[in-house]
Amino acid sequence: MCEGENAIGVSRATTLDIEYGPKFVNLNSHIPVDLGTSVTLTCEADGNPLPSIIWRRGSYPDALSTERQYTVHNIQDHDLGLYKCTASSINAGFAPIDAEIYLMRKDQPKITSSKIQYAAKGSTADIECKARSVPNADEVIWIRNGKEIDFASSDRYSFSETRKPDGVINTLHVQDSDDDDFGVYNCTVVNSMGLDFMAITLNQKEILALSYIVGGVIGGVAVIFIIAIACVLYHRYKGSDNESYAETDSNTEIKKREKSDSPTEFQKGTLMDQWRQDLNFHCPPTDFDEVYGKMNGTESKVTSGYGTLRSENYINGYDNHNGHLFSDYIHRSDETIPGESQMDNGVHQYGTSTFRSRPDFNKSSDSDPYQLPPADISTTKLATNV
């Protein structure tokens, strides 16, 4: 309220009502209790408007009470643990807040530290004594070689302490530790319910020399470098091997193609059959020793003088004389002397067919345009078996 006053009179302004959300006041989050007794939990919360209170047990949604205080009677083990107090001003638009309160049974301390701890020679050794203590510890005592350590008179021993609602962590510090400082230390924790103690052994921690550390680092780098080189060489070898395989495959394909282009024994046989068919086409009578022609209206038997000329002789003559036959066969039309046999320069004519003795099959003559060319294996079309 704002008030103003003078000789005439007094004037007052209206009061401002400022709203704010809930907050806890003087909250004790850890309460030591004895079994069989009763305890009253208090949840004080401030706020405008004044927040409402709800008590719950742990995470259970059911409400235990909506009063500011909640009393637990005849406490047993199942009553120990977490209680939750919720203060809310939902109607004013503020979010609710929660407070956790633990009921803890009073008991003598219980040390939970490790029994063997380590420190490096020449460094400050830290020996930890951790204990659960409800109520909290009244005293922590360190004993070395049967004597309590006097921190006030010692320049090498000191301690630091962290207290929690359910216990204490007390750490003994030994400066510039040497061989005599390693061994057994006794830690004793005392509270109103009793005490607990533990023998903690301080062992020396081996520290690798700098030379060993540097050597290990260099060795590790060298190993990594060697592995990298091996990987590179392996990939190169694998790549060249693949190229070699590809080249081998290509050469194999070429060889297959060449092999398919060159006549095989089977193909040669097929080629021979084709030549026999061609010969039979041009020379219908298989046996040329007896060729009958009608000369002057009578039948005469004319002998070629070369024995029996069959398709087999034709082929064998080609094979045995490197492509040159005993004779070449020319099939042509003779319009001058039809049906008459004549002999000119070693040429025997039988009707419209002529056999000429010629050692060189490859020779050609302008006067013989129908001369058959020599067989060429590379260009001859292979016949298949019918």
Automatic annotation (TrEMBL):
Residues 252-262, 357-366 have a biased composition (Basic and acidic residues). It is a single-pass type I membrane protein. Signal peptide: none annotated. Residues 22-102, 109-203 form the Ig-like domain. SUPFAM superfamilies: Immunoglobulin. It comes from Mytilus edulis. One of its GO terms (molecular function) is cell adhesion molecule binding. Gene3D superfamilies: Immunoglobulins. Residues 242-269, 351-386 are annotated as: Disordered. It is found in: Membrane. Residues 242-251, 377-386 have a biased composition (Polar residues). Keywords: Disulfide bond, Glycoprotein, Immunoglobulin domain, Membrane, Transmembrane, Transmembrane helix. One of its GO terms (biological process) is cell-cell adhesion. This is Ig-like domain-containing protein. The chain crosses the membrane at residues 209-234. It comes from the Eukaryota. PROSITE patterns: IG_LIKE (PS50835). GO terms for cellular component: cell-cell junction; plasma membrane.
